[in-house]
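Repro:
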Amino acid sequence: MRNCLFPILVLSCAWLGWSQAAPTPPPGTPAAAPAQTATAPSVSPSLKPRGPEAVAASDPNKVVAVVDGKQITAKQALDLLKALTPDERKQREGKLADLVQQLYTQEQLADMAKKMNMDQQDPWKDRLVLARDQVLAQAYVTHLRDEAAKTPVDDPKAYYDSHPDEFDQVKLSGIFVSFTPPGTPAPQPGQTGKTEQQAEDKANELEKKLKAGGDFAALARTDNDNSAVSAKGGELGTFNLGDTQIPPVLRSAIGKLQAGQISEPIRVNSAFLILKMDSRQKQAYADVQTSLTEKLRNEKTQSVVKQEVDKYKIKVEDEDFFGVPGSRPIPSLQKSPSGTSR
């Protein structure tokens, strides 16, 4: 099960889509009379083409909207939408009419600007060049990703065998003991107001109680400074130890625990966290093969793009030009009260 834990941890700690052939009649059966031609039934509304592509393919000249008194055909509306990516279309699902209006308005305003030759005037001329370069740069990055995706990925089974810890599925419970960092505003209602030392002392005390046989769920309800976790008796959820959202300090602590064991207090920004390993098991390769293959493919495409982009890292030769912080200040020609220049 995909981990929902660490968005909770991070927030709570401030880090944390027929036809069948007629049966052959038995021998001797009289031939059926020719079927009478029936009048074609009306098309069911459920069979009508729906969606921009389907309607435009069925009847490209069909008027689908009117804007500013002008009729917009299915083909024209689809042409407006073609510039959008599938994700952009999906984000506006159910609001395509508003989107067509927005794109049509943008097109008309741009046409009026071109009639005024604004595309040849500063600063619009330079901004058009910049926008064009941005689109083409993104097109090239997409090309790199597509080409990388066509090449074979590393053997997912070999990766699985050589990274066993990443496929540990663990179920955890936790107790948070929070503190107010120095210099922060006065505690609000519901906040503990403990200092870091006070929180650490309490966490150490709770650890001793738990390792002496104390009921983790009971203490998680009574001594937990995270109300959401407290209400569930300390339950944090199930997740994979290989999840990149897990901070290294927590991954290290969790990796040392076996089922039933309790961690030492772990400092996580403005709290100390005591973890209990409720269960731990390794995911079978068959259960992770698909997601692992996709992960390796994504890492490969990202690596190809990063390698290309990293070629263009800048090396500053003139700090004065870029105004780099910490560069030598420009001498002032103003005279100090003593009469000397500063």
